[in-house]
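pinned: reference chain
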Amino acid sequence: MDFLKHLDKFFETLGLSKASLFVRGLALIVSGSFGLITIVKLFDLEAHSLPLIGGGLAVIFVLVTILLIQVDRQEKALAKQEKELAEQERQKKLEERRLAEAIRQKQLRDLHPHFSEADVDHAQKYYIETRGQNVPPSRDQEPGLSSAFIVDKPLIPLFLDKNLKNTGEDDRFYLVLADSGMGKTTFMLNLYLEYVRNRAQHDYEMKLFAFRYPSAYEDVKQLVEDKKDLNTILLLDAFDEDGEASKNYKVRLDQWMDLVKNFREVIITSRTQFFPNEAATKGLLQIPKNNLLSPGFHQFKVMYISPFSDEDIIKYVEMRFPSGTPKDQQDKERAIQIVDKSPKLMVRPMLLANIDAFLNDPKKVYSTTYEIYDVLIEKWLWREAGRRGKQAQQFYDELKRFSKRLAIEIYNKWETEERLHITEEELISFAQLNNFDPDILSKLEMRSKSLLNRDAIGNLKFSHKSVLEFFLAVHAENHPSFWQRLKLKEFDVIVTFLQERGILPEMTMVEGGTFQMAEGYSVTLSDYEIGTYSVTQILWQNIMGDNPSRFTGDLMRPVECVSWEDCQEFIQKLNEKTGLNFRLPTEAEWEFAARGGNLSKGFEYAGSNNLDEVGWYGGNSGSKTHSVGQKAPNELGLYDMSGNVWEWCQDWYDKYPSGRHTNLQGAESGVYRVLRGGSWHSLPRHCRVADRDYGTPLYRSRRNGFRLSRHIEQSP
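pinned: its structure tokens
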């Protein structure tokens, strides 16, 4: 048999697939004959032995023939068996594909009309495993927050292997939070698809709905009426896009939780910023536990989607730009360069998914989200216009005008009907009213790269809410009257864009509380907002048109050389432009915030007992101010409340009153106004959160600046 194998290999080298049966037999007989002749010569046998040898050869021939026939039969049987197995494998793969397609079609039917096939494809393409953590990503670098306290795990396995197999009464309600563009919907779709794909391994049904869809509440209500809630795990995506929630999130959340209280488990996603603060997500639900050993009420188990890690980003780039061609390798290298230069922005999956829009200029550094969206939208406009040949510029201008007007029209619909799309019928009248080419949309390629999409039932919307918010921010920047209408709480990315443009201050919500301001003097404060940073030179310049500061060269430095009266003039103009109600903080508000509010750890300075960690003062400033936010924040995430510049407060300077006071506004009159916080020129003791200073309302100094405050309007 080994001989035959070697023979086959020899014939294969000659270009033949296998030696034929005749050739193999002839080769065996010839080799056998030579063997017999060799034996005759070796042992010097007589000639009369030749007949015997001939008989031996005949026997060899017969045996070889029988052997070869048997081998040939075995080989044919084996080949037939291999062919049958290959066909069986092919049929099995076809059946698996048919089954997978049938499952996919069922999934799409179950998801319709809340999610389209394009939504599903987008969620699965280049998917990087979603990770979650128990602490908001914004607090990852918070002083004193141990890395051991931050639990970062893959979310889908966490739910499938543990949370959704929980048979007890605890941890039935989950709230998954993330910033804009961090992949909340992608996570929910992949969780649903993975669960349904392995449905046989699970005890319960799973349903996924989108809050933004008009009939979401009624669709879930139907499951309850059909008594399917007890055996169903419910996924509800994007609470911040529920129109009723934008009016009063607490009331709307109570309505939803009353409806879904009997579902096996409930997972809800939302933008983090939709809730006023971290504490607002941790209140008790009005759902009693059915557990005699552990009575009480349910609470949300809150999780936060983690930004992409460096490994995630590299993995995504590897998937997106496989090293197949020199161009792929070049694109990959450029993508990595861009990520390296703008790491804080590219951790957002939505932006990373569009990284190819930035490949033409890999050396550019993007320092703001606004810059990235500006480039992203410009690339989309020109990509669409580029297919029009000589009409490219005309189509670009038309599509840009159309997109801007559409954003305002969709916002109008949100204001009146709480939805972020327009119907096909509304689109026709919208195009006619604004003199748009009625066929403009038919000329667009609404694929994964398009910033305009149709949903599962044909409604027109922007591909992501943040794209809508960009167009609204651009309009607001150039039309101050539009500020009066904008609901910035529900459209928080607009705030980010305008803050990055230096048009709107970044504010931090301070939950009200009571604190001891001095011996025998306590103050109780209601909720309010205070500036995350001191007012910067760029913000002052955008509002006032000039820059009075002595320390220039970086517009992100705090504005200084401003009097208390100058601050009032600035605030008046800012409020006129934005339609908001900014003011200076009261002295009590300033100190409560500097101490860390209800999260205070009792530090001497704002955020630490070590002034070098949190503030610029005479010992480390180099006799100048520095850009805001360079030192560590305090417990509330507020920067530079110790050092850099003294900050004006609203109050007249006076002795502290004794007793207990609520929302105290300070003395009714006086000569001096209060200054707090110390400056780049101060000794450490003047940078303490308890230290006070003062100046006349007209006093200007390169050591004095200010930050803003704002009363929080209570929901009805």
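why pinned: The chain is about 40% helix and 15% strand. The first helix runs from residue 2 to 13.
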